[in-house]
Amino acid sequence: MRSLSCTILLSLALVPACGARPGGDTLDDATLKALAAQPWDKARLMNTRERIGIHHGVPVIAEYPCSDVCPQYTVRIIHYELPPGADCARVGGVEQSVGVPVAIAVMPRSFCFPKVLVEAKLHYVR
Fold first, then answer.
1. What is the pLDDT of residue 24?
2. CA 47 → CA 1, 76, 82, 98, 118, distances in Å?
3. What whole-number distance in Å separates Cα of residue 30 and Cα of residue 33?
4. pLDDT computed for residue 3 by the predictor
5. Is 93 exposed, middle or buried (0-12, 13-18, 19+ CB in 10 A)?
6. N or C: which terminus of the chain carries fewer CB neighbours within 10 A?
7. What angle do CA 31, 35, 40 make, to 5 degrees?
8. R_g of the chain, CA atoms, integer Å
9. Domain spans in the chain, listed from the N-terminal domain onward
């Protein structure tokens, strides 16, 4: 029992250190923008997808699609992962279509992007 109590107390003590905020956000505007501004490795990340946090209560996903000339043509797309039927504008996002590599072409695909990244031109990077 004492071991369980220690584990629970330690877990609660670590929550603030992990960046948790009231409301469940793990990323504020400045943190999200700083993450998006970081260099990234096209060869290591091509054709992967990762959840990078919660912004304004919505999961944020980074996708790294590539198609025929990889890793050179890998792009990074950082967007909200909205539940079905959710409205992009209601969560504070900006809906935009960007070119996604598919086979030997680039096809337009719409995403809901965090406004702070669209304003900084960090939502879609080649």
1. 57
2. 46, 10, 21, 16, 22
3. 5
4. 42
5. buried
6. N
7. 175
8. 17
9. 23-125
Size of the chain in residues: 126
User: Given the structure tokens 């250190």, which residue do they identify?
Assistant: 17
> Is the link from the previous residue into 71 a cis peptide, with omega within 30 of 0?
yes
Question: How does pLDDT run along the chain (126 residues), one tens digit per residue?
Answer: 444 344 333 333 333 344 444 445 799 999 999 999 999 999 999 999 999 999 999 999 999 999 989 999 999 999 999 999 999 999 999 999 999 999 899 999 999 999 999 999 999 999
Q: Which residues contact 44 (CB under 8 A, 6 or more apart)?
A: none
Q: Is the dihedral of CA 46, 47, 49, 55 positive or negative?
A: positive
Q: For 18, which DSSP code?
A: T
- Quickly tell me which residue has 């939502």 as its tokens: 123
